[in-house]
Design a protein that fits this description.
This protein is mostly beta strands and about 140 residues long. It is built from one helix and eleven strands.
Length: about 140
């Protein structure tokens, strides 16, 4: 079985040549109009851009509420927090946390989600003493 296809594009002109053999022979040679060539090029460029985007480029959101008690402000909450986004536990850090979302919440000692302290599965709660956690990330 032989299959050959070649497309040559020069400014203002596209030439396509093809050969196929499988129990018979078929050959096609032709010139596409400049308008058709530009449309094909635009479609190929759009496809290349679309396939280059990461599948999960938009942040999904956890469903539910993450509750925490801050040292200075009392009870606070985050509704449907975005996955992968580092969120600050404001007002002095958290003394308590309750993960009532549908995804895990990793709690960090620092303000930039770099020093993991504890992970709470959906439905879990924790109390913190001493050095308080200052950030959380979902997902």
């Amino acid at each position: 079985m032989t299959t050959t296809a070649r497309t040559t594009t020069t400014p203002g002109r596209a030439t396509t040549t093809g050969t196929a053999t499988a129990g018979g022979t078929a050959t096609a040679t032709g010139r596409a109009s400049p308008r058709l060539a530009r449309a094909a090029l635009a479609a190929a460029a759009a496809l290349a851009v679309f396939t280059a985007l990461p599948a999960g480029s938009a942040h999904a959101a956890a469903t539910g509420t993450f509750f925490y008690t801050s040292r200075d402000a009392g009870d606070l909450e985050m509704d449907n927090p975005a996955d992968g986004e580092c969120r600050l536990l404001v007002q002095g850090g958290a003394t308590k946390a309750s993960n009532q979302t549908d995804t895990r919440a990793t709690i960090y000692s620092d303000h930039g989600c770099e020093e993991p302290r504890r992970t709470l599965r959906p439905g879990q709660s924790a109390t913190f003493t001493g050095s308080l956690p200052h950030s959380v990330q979902f997902g």
